[in-house]
């Protein structure tokens, strides 16, 4: 299940589209019982998160926070993967695709990285696979 929450009224129209994109991506990746929370935030809020958690004093397009291992979930409704924060204004100004960045964040929650070249190649391949499948 993908929960999308807008922290600003102006982002509410994006919620349903991102929820559908997320559900489709989770199904494609065979995580049908997984749960992800997505937050749509302003550029200043994203800058604050980026500064606090990555020590970078600037806004960014997407941040992902994986669920700590063995974190208790008494509700027991599938695997909780973590949280994704998206900055729609930043994404629009940068000419990027919000759904693609959502998938990028989701892959980070699933353990993909792009620190090393080999990791980046694997992640890009997974992103391309998702994009190709979802378009067709």
Question: Would you write up a description of this structure?
Answer:
The mean pLDDT is 87. The protein has a 4-stranded mixed beta sheet, sandwiched between helices. It is globular and about 35 Å long. The protein has helices spanning 15-28, 43-54, 88-94, 98-109, 117-135; strands at residues 2-6, 35-40, 62-66, 80-86. It is built from 5 helices and 4 strands. It is α/β, with parallel strands linked by helices and 136 residues long. It has a single domain (2-135), classed as Metalloproteases ("zincins"), catalytic domain (Collagenase (Catalytic Domain), 3-Layer(aba) Sandwich), CATH 3.40.390.30. Helix 1 crosses helix 4. It is 47% helix and 17% strand. Strand 1, helix 1 (15-28) and strand 2 form a beta-alpha-beta unit. It holds the Pfam family YbeY. Its EC number is 3.1.-.-.
Strand order of the largest sheet: 1-2-4-3
Average pLDDT reading: 87
Distance between the termini: 22 Å
CATH superfamily: Metalloproteases ("zincins"), catalytic domain
Radius of gyration: 15 Å
Structural class: alpha/beta
Written as H for each helix and E for each strand, in order along the chain, the element string is EHEHEEHHH
Number of structural domains: 1
- Residue stretches low in confidence (pLDDT < 50, at least 5 long) are none
Q: Level of helix content?
A: 40-55%
Q: Count up the helices.
A: 5
Strand content: 15-25%
**How does CATH name the architecture?**
3-Layer(aba) Sandwich
* CATH topology grouping: Collagenase (Catalytic Domain)
- Give the CATH level 1 class: Alpha Beta
Binding site for Zn(2+): 104, 108, 114
Protein name: Endoribonuclease YbeY
Subcellular location: Cytoplasm
Function: Single strand-specific metallo-endoribonuclease involved in late-stage 70S ribosome quality control and in maturation of the 3' terminus of the 16S rRNA.
